[in-house]
Specification:
Layout (H helix, E strand, L loop, with lengths): L10 E4 L7 H4 L5 E6 L3 H4 L2 H9 L3 E5 L8 H14 L3 E6 L1 H13 L8 H4 L11 E5 L11 E6 L2 E6 L7 E4 L9 H19 L7 H23 L4 H13 L14 H13 L3 H15 L5 H10 L8 H19 L15 H10 L13 H11 L1
Parallel strand pairs: 1-8, 2-3, 2-4, 4-5, 5-8
Antiparallel strand pairs: 6-7
């Protein structure tokens, strides 16, 4: 196991009816800005519950944070905060709203151009506004980590900082009941890939993290289709919501090598072609595993045996079968796994590679050996 430092200060309030606990979680004298995406929080009653729980506190709203939160939109929220002397943020939504809130929280205190927070990947963040979240879409784990991905035109960049952990997050599984199948499928794919990026690298005798990750993957395989087909089943949604949070709260990634090449390539596909984040992951991950099977051989065999119970046949056959099972799982959820499924041809690959190069993503992966040529191989395999 590799050396590590683990820190996560986020309080989790989990379960049906927990939105009411905002009455105690948000400071009584706070001047609150509630941050929202589209209209779902209003139409499904979540916003009304939030308003009721906040009681007599001074509350303003800011809505319209996009699925890939845009810099210009978020900067309007920063202006509203400064103009009206607001001092506490509450994200009500999925990962994009929470990611956007993290950026807003840091941008309020930025000493220079706030876009530099992204260009420096958070290294220049010295302070941030306090904030909490009410999760409505399990997927990204943003409710219990310190990472954020923000877009500006064709740029889609990430930052991390210990200053932007949520103080708390409310996880009420019933808030996901009204989500459409596509968003639920995206959430399952996103959580699955988060786990794979931390698990499927190379062995370092991190037995606890491996078993934890394998259990989370098996849980998603068991419940994933039911999440999409029967979204009103409380136990299914509860398990899904908690797996998605555990997938990226730092626990399974402590003391192990991490990859993230699939995410970096996926970000550029989203930026250039507008696909949902999880749609790009479903496309890239099976191809990534296939192209990099030599680097990942030991863990691919472990994944095949422990997650998919593939123990018969040659090693190559087991690896092939594990990758195919992964692809079939995504397809069963309704997530397509080829660029061509979205009418994106091989002629689009050079522009994706150019974006990777422009953003310094020229040596990716756990060994930092995924060059642009290797990324090209992955994209060709995903075509």
């Amino acid at each position: 196991m590799l050396n590590f430092d683990y820190y996560n200060p986020t309080r989790i309030a989990f379960g049906q009816g927990k939105v009411a606990e905002l009455a105690n979680l948000v400071p009584a004298n706070a001047r609150v800005l509630v941050l929202l995406g589209g209209n779902s929080a209003c139409s499904n009653g979540t916003l009304a519950e939030v308003r009721a729980a906040l009681g007599a506190r001074y509350v303003e709203e800011f809505s319209g944070i996009e699925p890939n939160p845009q810099y210009d939109t978020l900067m309007r929220a920063v202006a509203q905060i400064k103009a009206n002397k607001l001092d506490f943020l509450l994200a009500v939504g999925g990962g994009s709203v929470i990611d956007g809130t993290k950026f807003i929280a840091a941008a309020v205190y930025a000493n220079d151009e706030p876009w530099n927070i992204l260009l420096k990947h958070g290294a220049n963040v010295e302070a941030a506004m306090p904030f909490g979240s009410v999760l409505t879409l399990p997927a990204t784990g943003s409710e219990m980590n310190n990472g954020s991905v923000i877009s500006r035109g064709s740029d889609k960049l990430f930052f991390t900082s210990e200053q932007v952990f949520p103080l708390f997050s409310v996880l009420d599984p019933t808030r996901s009941y009204s989500l459409p199948p596509r968003q639920l499928a995206n959430g399952v794919v996103d959580a699955y890939t988060h786990i794979m990026e931390q698990y499927l690298t190379y062995p370092v005798e991190a037995r606890v993290q491996d078993r934890f990750a394998e259990g989370l993957l098996q849980t998603l395989i068991e419940i994933g289709p039911k999440v999409v087909e029967a979204p009103h089943d409380y136990d299914t949604q509860a398990n899904f919501m908690w797996v998605a949070t555990l997938a990226l709260n730092g626990l399974i990634g402590a003391g192990v090598p991490q990859d993230w090449a699939t995410h970096m390539i996926g970000h550029e596909i989203t930026a250039l072609h507008g696909l949902d984040h999880a749609q790009t992951l479903a496309i890239v991950l099976p191809a990534m595993l296939s192209v990099r099977r030599a680097d990942k051989r030991a863990k691919l065999l472990q994944y095949a045996a422990r997650v998919w119970q593939l123990t018969e046949g040659s090693e190559e056959a087991r690896i092939d079968a594990a990758i195919q099972r992964t692809r079939e799982f995504f397809e069963k959820l309704g997530a397509k796994t080829r660029l061509s499924d979205y009418q994106i041809g091989q002629e689009a690959i050079p522009s994706i590679l150019a974006q990777l190069e422009a953003h310094g993503m020229v040596m990716l992966g756990e060994h930092q050996n995924v060059s642009l040529d290797k990324s090209r191989e992955v994209l060709l395999a995903a075509a």
